[in-house]
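Quick one, probably user error.
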């Protein structure tokens, strides 16, 4: 994809540690990384909670180096015309490996076993005898032949499901919104559930891989625990908000849920019985941090320089090779006559169109128009002003 010469140096702010290889995408002549800036052009973030943060009007894009965007006020960004990107699949293998690790480790009581054996410190020569005597408390189960239920068969869930089959588990999966691409990746030996209840009734282990949204918040609660096999192990590498924590604490206390393995510890979780709290390590591998950072920063760079969009969660995908002298990008409501009004403003300024694209997503749409003519800054301002005056426009950029 060709890029445009930037009219000025752009500022990028990061809110979490972002791998150097990702930041290296922003070449020094064109970009400055300034984490103290209050008016950056774009923000790159991981898990930092942006909901209470003021976002300056200069911000054009926010990139989440990761999958979940529940830490970003996406609806507000959309209303303000700020593109929010994520990096689908870039950390999925890292999460999958940790899910499989904890599946085996928790089934063999490895975490509690290691904790217990450390308490024998100071017992001197008796340690081996005490270990042999005490280990009967730690007899575990093999996962071979057991059934794993996977709720959410996206990038992570699909990898977990396929690998669990390779470990000789039976696998049942539920995802009413599965993408065609993921469906192609899934082994045909994975049983397809038509409801979550079906998974709950059959699975010895349940792992959840769905985004936290208004629809999924608290999806695991007292009533759902009652539908599960007694002693089920639940793995949550998605988000804490998916679980009703008070109900989970009670289900663990009564041993209806045998174990809860979660990547999202908090004070409540730390007080729960038979819980393995992992310090949000799902995506914490060198490989995954680099994959996410590089994907996130490339997407932002492409958007700032060309207006092209890939993997935004609130804007439609839209890309055309840059063919003109300048490019007009317009984020607007998805209503009739918008393209006509934008192209009329362009012709009112005596400009010719070289190429264009219009894509919609829900209530919003995005139009990019390449201009054949060289234009000076006075014409750019006049054009911007004229388009902005049109009804139902959210943002206009002439690049
Ligand atoms: N622990 C970590 O470090 C870590 C890393 C990556 C992702 N995550 C979390 O895991 C989630 C999933 O990640 P992913 O990369 O697989 O995302 P993804 O978008 O590829 O997959 C999510 C899947 O959930 C499905 N889904 C949505 N609502 C559902 C519902 N009600 N019932 C069943 N399925 C439903 C979707 O159709 C989709 O296939 C992310 O949203 C994020 O919150 C955590
Ligand atoms: O950035 C991280 O370490 C975690 C990312 C993870 O929670 C995600 O949703 O991708």
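Nope, works fine. Designed sequence:
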């Amino acid at each position: 994809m060709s890029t445009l010469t930037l009219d000025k140096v752009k500022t990028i702010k990061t809110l979490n540690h972002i791998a150097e290889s990702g930041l290296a995408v922003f070449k020094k002549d064109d970009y400055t990384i300034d984490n103290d800036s209050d008016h950056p052009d774009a923000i790159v973030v991981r898990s930092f909670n942006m909901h209470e943060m003021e976002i300056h009007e200069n911000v054009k894009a926010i990139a989440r180096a990761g999958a979940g965007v529940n830490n970003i006020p996406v609806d507000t960004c959309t209303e303000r015309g700020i593109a929010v990107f994520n990096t689908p699949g870039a950390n999925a293998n890292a999460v999958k490996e940790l899910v499989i690790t904890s599946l085996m480790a928790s089934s063999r009581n490895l975490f509690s076993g290691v904790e217990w054996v450390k308490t024998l410190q100071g017992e001197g020569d008796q340690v081996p005898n005490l270990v042999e005597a005490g280990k009967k408390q730690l007899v575990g189960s093999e996962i071979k032949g057991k059934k794993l239920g996977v709720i959410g068969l996206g990038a992570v869930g699909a990898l977990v499901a396929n690998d669990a089959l390779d470990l000789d588990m039976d696998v049942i999966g539920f995802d009413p919104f599965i993408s065609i691409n993921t469906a192609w990746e899934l082994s045909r030996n994975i049983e397809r559930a038509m409801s979550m209840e079906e998974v709950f009734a059959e699975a010895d282990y349940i792992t959840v891989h769905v985004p936290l949204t208004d629809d999924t918040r608290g999806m695991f609660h007292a009533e759902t625990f009652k539908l599960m096999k007694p002693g089920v192990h639940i793995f949550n590498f998605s988000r804490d908000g998916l679980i009703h924590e008070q109900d989970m604490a009670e289900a663990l206390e009564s041993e209806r849920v045998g174990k809860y393995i979660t990547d999202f510890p908090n004070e409540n979780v730390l007080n729960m019985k038979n819980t393995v709290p992992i310090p949000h390590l799902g995506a914490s591998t060198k490989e995954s941090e680099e994959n996410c950072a590089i994907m996130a920063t490339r997407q932002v760079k492409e958007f700032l320089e060309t207006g092209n969009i890939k993997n935004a969660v609130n804007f439609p995908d839209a890309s055309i090779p840059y063919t003109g002298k300048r490019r007009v990008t317009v984020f607007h409501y998805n209503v009739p006559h918008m393209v006509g009004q934008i192209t009329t403003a362009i012709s009112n300024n005596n400009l010719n169109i070289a190429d264009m694209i219009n894509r919609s997503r829900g209530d919003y749409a995005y139009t990019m128009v390449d201009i054949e003519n060289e234009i000076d800054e006075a014409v750019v301002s006049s054009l911007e002003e004229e388009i902005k005056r049109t009804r139902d426009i959210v943002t206009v950029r002439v690049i």
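The chain has three domains: 1-91+283-315, 92-106+142-277, 318-399.
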